[in-house]
């Protein structure tokens, strides 16, 4: 397995950067061949220079990209540059977008995940409220703002919903011009973050070809709800497998949460190449990834 990694000593020392570096080092321990590529190709006159140091492969080799969520155009560019070297990223550009942008995944996940409406303008909020009611959870098609707390994600009235949608549309990296309005569901929890967001009982599952290769609790820190019984684990993995099967994206991360009434739902999904591993043990995960070919 080849790994194209954006890990660099020049990255700001953020939690995401530390995780990126840790994943890259673990990939090496698991026997993967790592080649470094610059983030966003900053400072390059020719994009092909980013992979100039990567040798051409005699036979096509599988690869994963270990980095930050790229723009759709950038993913497509790296995919084609790698392919010219005989290297094939596990997810094609279309498969990448199907997992990474929620509106592309939603129809496939209908029935497994809360009802959702996609809007591109605050004026569409009136119709969304008439259809789904309030409160509503608000997120971009790529990312939410859970780290900023409950009020950054949940609208209890139309005025707040319109303000949230307008604010999200300013965040191109999270929304790409599309905002997701979701029926608010209550996840089982016993604590909240310092910013006031409930620490719902949620698990992240990494899958390859709809087969789980690693799973763990979504949140950092200790939580009495973080341990699954065997029956619960089977339910979580089964639901994640069904979501991955529907998505038809080879390498995917699926988040599964438990409602207050005990039922389990799909929260969201993402291209596993750019998903945080959360509490998934790194070495066993990368050992499984290294065996993909």
Structural notes for this entry:
This protein is an alpha/beta fold. It contains 9 helices and 12 strands. A 4-stranded parallel sheet has the order 2-1-3-4. A 4-stranded antiparallel sheet has the order 5-8-6-7, with helices on both faces. Helix 1 crosses helix 9 (282-290). It is globular.
Give me the secondary-structure category: alpha/beta
**Tally of alpha and pi helices:** 9
The count of strands amounts to 12
Percent helix, as a range, is: 25-40%
Mean pLDDT: 95
Low-confidence stretches: none
Coarse shape: globular
Which strands sit side by side, in order, in the main sheet?
Answer: 2-1-3-4
Distance between the termini: 7 Å
How much of the sequence lies in strands comes to: 15-25%
Tell me the series of helices and strands, N- to C-terminal: EHEEHEHHEHEEHHEEEHEEH
Radius of gyration in whole Å, from Cα? 19 Å
Features:
about 290 residues, alpha/beta, four-stranded antiparallel β-sheet, 9 helices
Short description:
32% of the residues lie in helices and 22% in strands. It is α/β, with parallel strands linked by helices.
Question: How do the strands and helices of this protein lay out in sequence?
Answer:
Layout (H helix, E strand, L loop, with lengths): L1 E4 L9 H15 L3 E4 L24 E6 L5 H13 L2 E3 L3 H8 L1 H8 L6 E4 L5 H8 L3 E5 L13 E2 L2 H12 L2 H4 L3 E5 L18 E7 L2 E7 L12 H18 L3 E8 L5 E8 L10 H9 L3
Parallel strand pairs: 1-2, 1-3, 3-4
Antiparallel strand pairs: 5-8, 6-7, 6-8, 9-10, 9-11, 11-12
Helix pairs in contact: 1-9, 3-4
